[in-house]
Structures are given as C-alpha cells and as structure tokens.
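Shipment paperwork, digital attachment
Item: protein structure file
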Amino acid sequence: MHTIRCKFIEKEKVFDQGYIITVKLIKGYNSQPIALAEKIQLTEGSYNVLAYLVEISKEEQTYLLFIDTSASKHKQLDIMQLTNSEFELEVSDNSIFTLNHKVRKMLLIMDDTSLIETAAILQLLAFNNINSELCLLTNTVQEDIIIFIERLIDSNIYYLNSIKTPVIDEIFERQTIGTALFIYGSWPIIDKIKNCAYKAGFENDVIQYKGYGQKIEKIFCVKCYCFNEKKNTEDIRCKRCNILLDVSTSYSKRLDAYLGYKKVD
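Attachment content:
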C-alpha cells in the first residue's frame, strides 16, 4: 500500500451504490490503469471504502474516482464530505486489471456484486478506445448504475440469470480473433468459465480473472490426470490411482492446480 493525495474537482454521477467524482492528483504517484483504494482519509477522520481510480489525463494528473458505498459495514462517506476538499487515499500496490493495448476487444463476464468496479473497468476501456462486451450475471436490470453501464458501452451488454455451459460456449463462439477475456465472480463460476474459454481456444495471456469467496486449491496428479484437493501437507494420496503424490511448488495456470508427482523414497 502507498498513500496519495487528491483534490476534489467536480461531481460526475451519483448512484444508489456509490458515486463518481473527478479528482486531481496533487501528491504521490499512480502507475496502474485502475488503482484500488480501501481507505479515504479526511481531516475529520478516515473511512473504509472501495474506490477505483481511473486516469483521465496523464499531463493534468486528473482521474475519475469511482467510490463504492454498497459493501461498507462502517460509517458511510457522503459525497458532500469530499466536495471542494483535499483527501488522502491508501492505494494498493497490486493491480486489479491489466490494460493490453494490443487487444481489439475485451469480453467481460461478471456478476453484479461489484457494479461500481465493473463501471470503472468499462470506463478505462472506453478511454482507451477498446471495444467491450459485457455479459452480466444478474436478476436486476433497473438499477441506475446498470443504466450508466449500458450507455457507456452502447448497450453492448447481455444479461444472464445463470452460468450454463451451452450459453457460455455460444458467447465464446461468436467472438473474433483479438478478443481478450476478463472474468469476475465466485471461484466456482470462474473455474467453469475458464474451462469453456480454454475449450474455445483462449490462451492464458488473454485471460484475466478476479474471484471472491473460498477458493479450493487443487493438486493435479501427473500419472492419472485426476484433480485432488490440496491439504496442508507436503504429500497426499491420489483419490483415483492411489499413489502417494509429492506436491511441487510448480503451479499450472491453465490447470489452475499445483502439479503432483509420484513420491520417490
């Protein structure tokens, strides 16, 4: 984490789930396409929030700040508290999204648990003239933030009420060469979509994902090609072929698993 200082410029949009303001960076640095901040420090106190900083102008050091208030379990930060003020952001050093200018199109398959973050990513793509298509897993399409998202990508959005393999396969089949993929959702959903993407011909270097919830780490048996749940031990016994596996530190991004080799005494 590192701290930056910003100055409020103007209010852009207000939603039920949060708001967007324009700010100017007056102290510190930001090297990420989207910077994640988890705390805002004002003169009167600090607020735990989720906020996403998207660059507007590198020369003028201006940004759009997307602030998500929907998931906060603490005191709410009202937009009036930021108006005409200076404040500090605690910004993560880890990137939540990688911008690849070589891709022709970005396909996003996301659920609706973080619509402010979805809007921030789509705004970044729009600023960089990258075509985008959003497949949104949701049961609600009337929220004001969704209307903003629809306008942002010229209604190039498809609503899903569940993640079914035939539906995902059809989405991938209509994509063209040069399309990259970003997935956001629970880990079981991400695993399911990734498997469909690999089957459709997507490679690791064009797939990004961000998951939440409990993730079950897996061991891939190189003898019988069976997946086993990772335990807090150096070796495990494969549930299919029953050999004792020596769990390596090698991790396969494609398999989403650590490799397990036959243990040699």
